[in-house]
Amino acid sequence: MTDAPRADSPGDPATGTADAVTADLTSPELRDAIERTREDVASLHAELVRYGLVVWTGGNVSGRVPGADLFVIKPSGVMYDQLRADNMILCTLDGQVVEGTPGSERSPSSDTAAHAYVYRNMTEVGGVVHTHSPYAVAWAAFGEPIPCVTTAMADEFGGDIPIGPFAIIGDDSIGRGIVETLSGHRSRAVLMKNHGPFTIGRDARDAVKAAVMVEDVARSVHYSRQLGTPAPIEPAAIDSLFNRYQNVYGQEPTGSLT
Ligand SMILES: [Zn+2]
Q1: Based on CB atoms within 10 Å of each CB, which residue in 36, 39, 128, 130 is the most buried?
Q2: By the 8 A CB rule, do 94 and 20 touch?
């Protein structure tokens, strides 16, 4: 964490401008935090390619800059093998590019407004990912939640993966749909109807993991449905699996923002 002054207030997109943030970038702690976030976000895009979640320039990862009301996101329309820390784009939480910073000459991802809305309204979220991974998109087009019928799904998502509302790209409606669906929900993934998965996490890496896992469970449950009706898991068993995995397995519980 850094003591850098905050440029704007979460939940109040009307305050704070790109100019106000630029003035704060002299803080060495903030500069380091931004650089680390740029490196993380740039390198994590390779995971989307590695796991077959994206085609061409589709998909995007963003990460909140720890200790500041800023986030870093991929530029729009740049091929994956050309993404680097210095062409990631620094944005304020109202989705505005911080002018004069590396990468700011390009447009940010077309989903920037949705990412910004999530960061403004879910303060515990440190990373957001969007892909059009095929099995998850198939469920999104089908319009039905992915039922929690495997232990891996109970571990990772703690229940069904919900469907979010149909929303048009270009304003806050996707962000609103993500926040309304995932607030108070165990799942870190939502399938926006007729569109595809958006995932959140305590940091960008955690959100990328959720994007990988949602595609994996979407595929598995799809296969199971070809065999018939998947057998349900008792809710108490889902609770037990989720709690064990989140609190015992691994190093840190999901959802806690440092
Ligand atoms: Zn999309």
Answers
A1: 128
A2: no
- List pLDDT tens digits, range 141-167: 999 999 999 999 999 999 999 999 999
195 among known catalytic residues = yes
Nearest CA to 44 out of 77, 102, 85, 97 is that of: 85
Q: How far, in Å, CA of 129 to CA of 144, rounded?
A: 21
What's this model's pTM, rounded to 2 decimal places? 0.88
Per-residue pLDDT reduced to its tens digit, 228-258 = 999 999 999 999 999 999 887 765 555 444 3
Cβ-in-10-Å burial (0-12, 13-18, 19+) of 247 comes to: exposed
Q: Where are the domains of the chain?
A: 18-247
Looking at CATH, the fold of the domain delimited by 18-247 is given as L-fuculose-1-phosphate Aldolase (3.40.225)
CA of 41 to the centre of ligand 1 (A): 18
- Name the region of 135 (left: φ>0; alpha: ψ -120 to 50; beta: rest): alpha
* Residue 132 designated active-site: yes
In the numeric block, which tokens belong to residue 65? Answer: 């800059």
Known catalytic membership, residue 249 = yes
Max CA pair span of the chain: 60
For residue 33, give the 3-state DSSP assignment. Answer: helix
State how far the Cα of 64 lies from the Cα of 44, in Å rounded to an integer: 14
Catalytic residue among 40, 111, 130, 216: 130
Name the pLDDT band for 5 (thresholds 50, 70, 90): very low
The catalytic position among 132, 160, 172, 222 is 132
